[in-house]
Design goal:
Layout (H helix, E strand, L loop, with lengths): L2 E6 L9 H9 L5 E4 L3 E5 L1 H7 L3 H16 L3 E6 L2 H8 L8 E2 L5 H6 L11 H9 L5 H6 L2 H8 L1 H11 L16 E11 L2 H21 L2 E12 L4 E12 L2 H15 L6 E13 L11 H20 L12
Parallel strand pairs: 4-5
Antiparallel strand pairs: 1-3, 1-4, 2-3, 6-9, 7-8, 7-9
Length: about 325
Amino acid sequence: MTILCVRFQLPPAREAALPGLLGLLEDFTPVVEALPPDRALADLRGAERYFGRDAVELASVIRVRALAHHGVDCMIGAGPGPMLARMALRDARPGVTRAVTEEEAADFLAEKPVAALPGVGTATARTLCEYGLDTLGRVAAAPLSTLQRLVGAKTGRELHEKANGIDRGRVVPNGVSRSLATERPFTRDELDPDRHRRALLSAAGELGARLRALDKVCGALTLTVRYADRSSTTRTRTLKEPTAHSAALTRTAYEMYEALGLQRARVRAMSLRAETLGPAEQASHQLTFDPTDDKLRRIEEVADRARAKFGPHAVMPGTLAA
């Protein structure tokens, strides 16, 4: 076991702590890959040799340091490759690293549903289940030629290897997360469009506040609507200019929502993701003669200062974006 998949239990208001947490992992290895919005992969092969400890022991040290230096707990999965480490993370508990060895991989995967495998989408899972290949154990036992006829030559070969525990992935070092996300679940399946819009208003306000706290702007916004039947719709729109302005994010979210044309849809949750983040100082802002927009930006500055001084709940997200 040389790969860790770490999920930091990071509240939205502490998003700015993520670079420091990634730096904590880099104290052990330079091979760290950020996985938006709160996870990271770390290749510890060199660290195991250097420190004379295995990945599970190093995971305990990482957990203690995250709590001591950042006040953040984490859950950790360990495996011989990135795929198994990510799947092990799903079975992890706070304080206990879930480790899967190469010898245990086949048994670990056998009873898991085929949709649990990273990279298997809804359409592929549906096709496999229609032919009785609903678990990874059954996929692993199926002839390679059968899988290739069902899902294609390349996909079938990759699926066969992964279901048999063969993990050819690697950890690719990258920068801090390129996106931020927030979700608004409803207490019951919601049909009221006004409540849908209020959820989007709140989510856009939160994203704007978090972006400004990080001195970031986003270049695109993604809306995901989850329905009562567990299906979902996702739409992404590129912004006219990169922004962290809550009113601009709200307008874009409303436009995407209206374009869906939902009629009596039973919505379970709505989420927004700010994509393609970049430094705020490098973003340009088109001048406007709209006094309302200028007023909203001044109010945002005051609200941000209040949050910085009194905490994230000093001003409720979304209340300034209408």
